């Protein structure tokens, strides 16, 4: 045990206490009685750790320490997860500080280079450089405003004629705070990707209430999003079109070959690390809603399950609306780490059964496959760099 010893001078007695609260209580009583008897108060005590006594008393005292009590209430796996989370948070804070310092150094370097360039030329040349820079900045702002206007036009058109895609947010009570934060990030990515598409979809957020709504409201520019936000469930929001509802779930036996423009496709907004298996399928069956799954198995073999994140499903649907090709949509969106390389032969057999022409067979060759994997790997690496742009686009919207 780690007891605390209180010793003022060498001639004073040592007070052994079980914990810090006991020590504080004894010290308070001592000072009270000394003040009451008009004696000088003791100086600030010197606290030193005491390793405990030999024998059984030491083992009994060890069980009363806060660290020992915490260790007893947490399992080994929980302690490992807690330690892992602490390391992750520390590393994340350190990386954020490094990126901030790097941006600061880059800004300072560019400022010095610009200042040196102005000092190295004459007055007329300096004025010309300043005017050119202002004009370039003005053109950039005009181009950004023009792109923003076109984006809003596409989104408004999608509200009228676009494919309806619903993100079901009624599972918020089953997720932790970190999982809710992860889902919010995925929704931000969905909105940014949808705004950049030539044929955007009509996105809906249903069941948006409670902690889920609070976290979304913290997103900059969320109140200006061109997206439908409903606190009620999708059953109530589309009560007159229930026959058009289709819940997309990997547990369904119905394969989605084509997207019906009149259908309303629902995606379960759930980040659960596979804790709640089959929950979306059971929910759809209880509500009497049709279900379907993406035809992933017909084009590639997954290394694990066919469960994808919300933003991946939305991006696959958007790619199919643009290309009308499931294979292209899957290979451009699904990351390489989720694919199984051993399934390439099975993929060729499936393609031959579907009667795909020779040009598409060539695209399935190992060289083409390697190129596609490399492109997907590069896309995966660029996601981190796009996060800042996505947040900026969400704010501008």
TrEMBL record:
The keyword Mitochondrion does not apply. Keywords: Methyltransferase, S-adenosyl-L-methionine, Transferase. One of its GO terms (molecular function) is tRNA (guanosine(9)-N1)-methyltransferase activity. Its EC number is 2.1.1.221. It catalyses: guanosine(9) in tRNA + S-adenosyl-L-methionine = N(1)-methylguanosine(9) in tRNA + S-adenosyl-L-homocysteine + H(+). Signal peptide: none annotated. CDD domains: SPOUT_Trm10-like. This is tRNA (guanine(9)-N(1))-methyltransferase. It comes from Penstemon smallii.
């Amino acid at each position: 045990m780690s007891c605390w010893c209180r010793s003022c001078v060498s001639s004073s007695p040592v007070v052994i206490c079980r914990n810090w609260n006991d020590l504080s209580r004894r010290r308070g009583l001592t000072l009270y009685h000394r003040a009451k008897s008009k004696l000088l108060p003791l100086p600030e005590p010197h606290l030193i750790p005491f390793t405990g006594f030999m024998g059984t008393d030491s083992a009994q005292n060890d069980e009363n320490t806060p660290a020992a009590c915490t260790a007893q209430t947490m399992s080994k796996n929980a302690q490992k997860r807690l330690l892992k989370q602490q390391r992750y948070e520390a590393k994340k804070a350190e990386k954020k500080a490094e990126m901030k310092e790097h941006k600061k150094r880059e800004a300072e370097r560019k400022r010095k280079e610009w200042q040196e360039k102005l000092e190295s030329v004459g007055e007329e040349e300096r004025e010309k450089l300043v005017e050119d820079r202002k004009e370039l900045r003005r053109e950039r702002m005009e181009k950004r405003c023009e792109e923003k206007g076109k984006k809003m036009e596409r989104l408004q058109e999608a509200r009228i004629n676009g494919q309806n895609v619903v993100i079901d947010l009624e599972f918020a009570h089953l997720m932790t705070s970190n999982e809710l934060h992860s889902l919010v990030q995925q929704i931000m990515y969905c909105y940014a990707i949808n705004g950049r598409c030539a044929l955007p979809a009509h996105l809906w957020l249903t069941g948006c209430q409670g902690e889920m709504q609070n976290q979304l409201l913290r997103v900059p520019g969320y109140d200006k999003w061109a997206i439908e936000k409903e606190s009620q469930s999708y059953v109530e929001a589309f009560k007159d079109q229930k026959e058009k509802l289709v819940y997309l779930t990997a547990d369904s036996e119905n394969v989605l070959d084509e997207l019906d423009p009149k259908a309303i496709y629902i995606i379960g907004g759930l980040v659960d690390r596979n804790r709640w298996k089959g929950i979306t399928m059971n929910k759809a069956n209880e509500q009497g809603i049709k279900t379907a799954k993406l035809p992933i198995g017909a084009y590639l073999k997954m290394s694990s399950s066919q469960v994808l994140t919300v933003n991946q499903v939305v991006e696959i649907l958007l790619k199919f609306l643009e290309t009308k090709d499931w294979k292209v949509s899957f290979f451009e969106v699904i990351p390489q780490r989720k694919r199984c390389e051993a399934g390439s032969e099975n993929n060729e057999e499936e393609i031959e059964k579907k009667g795909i022409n020779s040009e598409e067979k060539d695209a399935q060759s190992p060289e083409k496959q390697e190129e596609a994997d490399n492109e997907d790997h590069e896309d995966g690496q660029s996601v981190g760099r796009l996060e800042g742009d996505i947040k900026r686009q969400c704010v501008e919207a």
